[in-house]
Amino acid sequence: MLRDKFREFSRDTSSIGQERVDAANGLADALIAAGHSENATVAEWKDGLNEAWADLLELMDTRSQMLAASYELHRFFHDARETLAQIRDKQQQLPEEVGRDLNTAEAMQRLHSAYEHDIQALSAQVRQVQEDAGRLAKAYAGEKAAEIRRQEQAVSQAWAQLRGSSHGRRRLLLDTVDKFRFLRGVRDLLLWMDGVRLQIEGQERPR
């Protein structure tokens, strides 16, 4: 990766360069201390060398910061697209069937509980995208800032839709289970009433 290569280059260059600059400064100081006839020229060259070295260090630092910012921006767009794709995939996994009887409805209810636990893991990714977008949008302007906001809004809207769909299905499954339980209760009660009626009709009538 370009950022890592430049970081390594900058580290090596700073280390080697500082050794060389220190050696040149040491030599210049020794010449000046010895009362060299060209003291003024040596001091001038020493100052020029140190100024050039400071400029180079500043240039490397600026370049490193630019690469770090570029990497962070690209990582944000990658993470946002990845999170959005996962949310949409989970949205498509939501079934419409609610079950034909109590057993299948309860089974689907259990499956949906596992599904909700599964999508909850996405909340951390969504929150990270939102936090990164808020921070990066302040550092950029114009089209880049607008694109950052668009990516964050797409993720947030898809996440809100997924949570809404998941909540709606949970409510629907709960209503379906309650309905089948009620119908089973009614059926059991009717069977019991039929049994009582048969007992009554089977008894010997009084004369």
Automatic annotation (TrEMBL):
Residues 105-139 form a coiled coil. InterPro entries: Spectrin/alpha-actinin, Spectrin_repeat. GO terms for molecular function: actin binding. Keywords: Actin-binding, Coiled coil, Repeat. SUPFAM superfamilies: Spectrin repeat. This is SPTN2 protein. It comes from Nycticryphes semicollaris. The gene is Sptbn2.
